Amino acid sequence: MVGYLVHLFFNRQRFRADDFQIPQHRQARSLAAILDRLSVKKNKLQTLVIILGLIAIGLGVRSLLLVPTMILPTWFLVLLYLPFVLLISFTLGFITKKLTKSTWHTLTFSTIFAAIISLTFYFSEYKPSYTVKIPDTFVGEVKLFVTNESTNDLNVNKLGVGYINQKTFKNGFQPKILKGDKDITKEIHGYSTGTFASSLLPNKQINYISFLIPGKKESEDDENNFDELIKSNRIDTARILRE
């Protein structure tokens, strides 16, 4: 009798322990489902990284297109910029994948590096935008003279003269050129900065930004003779020399 009871006890214990064991085929299916979910999430994350990287590259290209050039067109700079960035990014992405032994695609790492390069260029080239207003009938060289004033005066007069403050001159800006109500920004080429000294202003150097408004001039005047510009009161020296 005692032996029979002991037999029942051990059988009952074994039966309860078995209740807590998951069959091997069910364990395999559960693990596979978890890995599938993780794989889907990883692919979605990589897709998101690539999309954000392409947006960053687009910002870099846009900034490059806005860079004023003297000779080469901006689209030519883009043709030089993109292959270089893509080559460097792919090389760094390939090396990173090998070193980390990651299951992520090389394209994902390459996109991350391309985004870093593009965003660095974008923020380094970012400049505020200012509108420069030109008289309807003006043709020729515009000069924006640097002052010590706190504000800009970008309403160019009929003589082609305007004024910017030192902060704007040093930091740079993206000009939007309006001739009357017409936006002629894309028609402007040859942005440049310069410095001149005049015998009428001893021990003074005056900085300026200049660019050309296209068109045919009715008469030719000596607009590059700064002494003549000062004598004819085309430049307000009181504003330029203000401390």
Question: In words, what does this structure look like?
Answer:
- By secondary structure, this protein is α/β, with parallel strands linked by helices.
- Helices cover 51% and strands 19% of the residues.
- It contains 7 helices and 7 strands, in the order H-H-H-H-E-E-E-H-E-E-E-E-H-H.
- It has helices at 2-19, 24-65, 74-100, 106-125, 166-171, 226-231, 237-240, and strands spanning 129-134, 140-147, 161-165, 174-179, 182-183, 192-198, 201-213.
- The strands form 2 sheets. It has a 4-stranded mixed sheet. A 3-stranded mixed sheet has the order 1-4-5, with no helix packed on it.
- Strand 4 and strand 5 form a beta hairpin.
- The protein is elongated, with a radius of gyration of 35 Å.
- It starts with a helix and ends with a helix.
- 17% of the residues are buried.
- The model has no long low-confidence stretch (mean pLDDT 77).
